[in-house]
Design a protein that fits this description.
- It is built from 1 helix and 22 strands.
- The strands form 2 sheets. Strands 1, 2, 3, 4, 5, 6, 7, 8, 9, 10, 11 and 12 form a 12-stranded antiparallel beta sheet that branches. Strands 13, 14, 15, 16, 17, 18, 19, 20, 21 and 22 form a 10-stranded antiparallel beta sheet that branches.
- The chain is globular and about 55 Å long.
């Protein structure tokens, strides 16, 4: 019971599994499918929200709570986006996964979305590369801190896709695409945040993702940001306090400079790709959504990794996801 109450604050003990549902008012799930050769990006979002207010009430027992959910499907090119608010949702307490009414069902092995005959996605994932079991997740020691404004964890770092999508009446084959999946959770969405992901660097096994937002600490606002980089078999997870990131993020671009342990330095330079998709985020306790996420599904992102003075990697993706939330 004590562990359940602790996790209901959003926190996880070391060697915990942050991808499992916590019992907070908002549990968010995100899948991103990119087909580099076709320049195609498909995004699916699912959320499990409850009727507690966003002020931090612990979610009631599963037998008594009344969850509702949100499902979104978006794509590039073409600007397609559709969102549905569903009367029920169930987040998996034992693994990464969520079911949102009859609209969305997804986990680490695939994603199914049905928002009407012209808005469907069926994708299965093979050769899945999961986040490795470590003492801490992507946020480092912050995972153990109760009541943060937002928690974040990549789950599927890469996978090969089999499936199809119907978007605006056009049927698209997704075979050969690559997939990424992550989770975020809290009492509600924060007032301001930034986020990004890219995998289409032209080299298998290379990806990066980041997430952050302003945090009040000792009377000062800091740009708390976590950065993840996968370079084949090596995974860098850079988060405070062992790593520090300087951030300039907004509608005009994303600039991140991260310094980690052992001389690791990561530089990310992101540029928007045309007009962003304006995506809804749920408002727990109110059974409604607000258009607060401005997400570029096909932005441009350069990644540079150094260890000391030695260049480890440098590359660019023209199909990056870049988000600014207000």
């Amino acid at each position: 019971m004590l562990l359940r109450a602790y996790r209901a604050t959003g926190a996880d003990l070391p060697f915990g599994r942050p991808e499992r549902a916590h019992g907070v008012p908002f549990e968010g799930y995100y899948w991103r499918i990119v087909h580099p050769e076709r320049g195609l990006v498909v995004v699916a979002i699912g959320a499990d929200c409850d009727g507690a207010t966003a002020s931090g009430h612990v979610r009631p027992a599963a037998s008594t709570r009344k969850s509702w959910g949100m499902a979104t499907l978006a794509a590039h090119p073409g600007g397609f986006v559709r969102t549905s608010v569903e009367p029920s949702a169930v987040a998996d307490p034992y693994a990464y996964g969520v079911t949102v009414g009859r609209a969305l069902r997804g986990d680490a092995l695939g994603i199914h979305v049905d928002l009407g005959p012209d808005a469907r996605l069926d994708a299965a994932f093979d050769d899945v590369v999961r986040w490795p079991r470590r003492s801490l997740g992507a946020l480092g020691a912050a995972h153990a801190v109760p009541g943060l404004a937002q928690y974040w964890q990549p789950v599927v770092l890469g996978a090969r896709v089999r499936g199809r999508a119907t978007l605006g009446g056009e049927e698209l084959a997704l075979d050969g695409a690559v997939a990424y999946a992550e989770k975020n959770w809290a009492r509600a969405f924060p007032d301001h945040w930034w986020w990004g992901h890219a995998a289409a660097f032209g080299e298998p096994g290379v990806m990066t993702a980041f997430a952050g937002g302003p945090l009040r600490l000792a009377g000062t606002t800091v740009a708390a940001t976590a950065v993840v980089v996968r370079l084949g078999d090596e995974l860098l997870a850079l988060a405070p306090p062992l790593a520090r990131t300087r951030v300039a993020a907004g509608a005009a671009g994303w600039r991140l400079r991260t310094r980690g342990a052992r001389g690791v330095r990561v530089e990310l330079e992101g540029e928007p790709g045309g007009a962003p998709h304006v995506l809804d985020v749920p408002v727990p306790g109110e059974r409604r959504t607000l258009p607060r996420s401005h997400q570029h599904l096909a932005g441009r992102l350069t990644l540079t990794v150094r260890r000391g003075t030695r260049l480890i990697y440098s590359g660019e993706s023209a199909l990056a996801g870049l988000e600014h939330g207000v």
